[in-house]
Amino acid sequence: MRLILFGPPGAGKGTQAQRLADCYNAIQLSTGDMLRAAAAAGTEVGLRAKAVMEAGNLVSDDIVVDIISDRIDHDDCKNGFILDGFPRTLAQAEALERMLAEKSLHLDAVIEMQVDDGLLIGRITGRYTCTTCGAGYHDKNLQPKVAGVCDKCGGTDFCRRADDNAETVMSRLKAYHDQTAPLLPFYQKRGCLLTVDGMAEIDEVTQQMKALLGAG
Ligand code: AMP
């Protein structure tokens, strides 16, 4: 299964990508995660990307296209991948199309997660993750069963993303509307665009996606 999960920041792409990756034995490929890892590792690309990410702007197309092009050649992507946060510009979408054609791979679908802007700000500013296993939580919507202890691994250290603050969120939303949303007609024309209600409960969104993909 090769999919693009499409939607604004805070739509829940990461959460759903993990679930679909488990379900279809595919790999979640999040350009945001890869760039944060590069920044944490202090690589040249990572350090250049860090300031751009913290301002809520988009990292240059060349950087993310190269990252994805290298990554999908790895063996663990042979069974499929769920792209989460890529492509984000028309140039990226065109580069992806070319790269898949060169590798004789086809895209099964692009799933758009529709969420109103008003909901996104609260979703993003309230979220945090377990430092040990990366499980995601939210101050209001999804708290650990035991306060301060990760449900999945028992870890007690949690962290928030540097760009998950109210000010940066506004820039990220603007980048989405200006540069990323125009990809919707691009994929609509190719006949592969599916849509789910990203405002439904997390399990319900997963069910909607599986039903659309024929594994409900
Ligand atoms: P995300 O984790 O998907 O919310 O991405 C966090 C940040 O990483 C974004 O706000 C961008 O600065 C950068 N980023 C992630 N993916 C891309 C991409 N495909 N193109 C450009 N910038 C990206």
What would the principal axes of the Cα set say about the shape? Answer: globular
Rg over C-alpha atoms, rounded to the nearest angstrom = 17 Å
How many individual helices?
A: 9
Structural class: alpha/beta
Sheet of most strands? 5 strands, parallel
- The amount of helix comes to 40-55%
Could you spell the SSE succession in H and E letters?
EHEHHHEHEHEEEHHEH
Strand content: 15-25%
The neighbouring-strand order within the major sheet is 2-3-1-4-8
Instruction: Give the names of the bound compounds.
Output: adenosine monophosphate
On the 0-100 scale, what is the average pLDDT? Answer: 95
Unreliable residue stretches = none
N- and C-termini, Cα separation: 15 Å
By DSSP, the count of extended strands is 8
